[in-house]
Amino acid sequence: MATVVVTGATGAIGAATVAALQKRRAHVIGLSRPVLDLSSIASVRAAARELNRTAGHIDALLNIASVFTSRYQKSVDGFELMLATNHLGPFLLTNLLRDRLASGGRVITVTAPSTTQVNIDRLLDRDRFNGFHSFGATKAANLMFTFELARRSKRWDVRANAFHPGLVRSDLMREAAGVIRFATRLVSRGPERAANDLADLALSPAHAGTSGWFFKGSRRIDPPKSSLDETAQAALWMRSADLVELEGGF
Fold first, then answer.
1. Domain-located, residue 57
2. pLDDT tens across 45-63, in order?
């Protein structure tokens, strides 16, 4: 029986994905608040310690959790909330679970084809905060993290891919302006299709050797060119590791 760890397990996509995985008889470990607060380094480390103690081999880690906020908020560690939750938390959790993922594990990070420039100094600067910019930058960071992880994790036999679910009805954009929420709901669909696609990426033998790809549904798509700069990917990795005080890792 495959073991799959899912963050954001109570959100729209996360809950549907848990159900899809369970239908395929996977052992699912769902992580969401209060068990895991991705915006808190201490919470991420505590969750990782527990998984390292009890989980055995992890066949797939699905980084699904995400937040959007229209106003500047600080995490308990002093980082902007979206940067902490959408990028730094998944980055740290993935690295801390390396030994459980080794020998065939898969890391799938839910993101979007964002072309927003990733400038960590700007994201940490309250005076330069813009909600949509920060959110877009964290989604771009997810892509860059995935591609850098795919290269680094070859030595551990770990696969890393990114997944774009399209527009899915959820509470993610509840702080956006009313007209944006209305327009989004008009063109959004339920989470079931995205959930089934994620379950395929996590469990299907067809993806056992797939790494460094960006998917929309079951189809591989081209990521934005801005996310493909390997020097920038490596720099983001090192800065992220410094911020979360990660030693070693992939």
1. yes
2. 999 999 999 999 999 999 9
Q: Quick one: pLDDT at residue 79?
A: 98
**Do the domain assignments include residue 42?**
yes
Into how many domains does the chain fold? 1
The verdict on residue 132 lying in a domain is yes
Q: How far apart are CA 124 and CA 126, in angstroms?
A: 6
The token duo for 32 is 């969401």
Residue 34 domain-assigned (yes or no): yes
Could you tell me the residue range of the domain that residue 142 belongs to?
3-243
CA 37 from chain centre, in angstroms, equals 13
CATH number at residue 144: 3.40.50.720
CA distance to 6, 44, 84, 189, per residue, from 101 (Å)? 13, 16, 23, 32
* pLDDT at residue number 134: 97
Distances (CA, A) of 245 to 131, 205, 214: 26, 35, 28
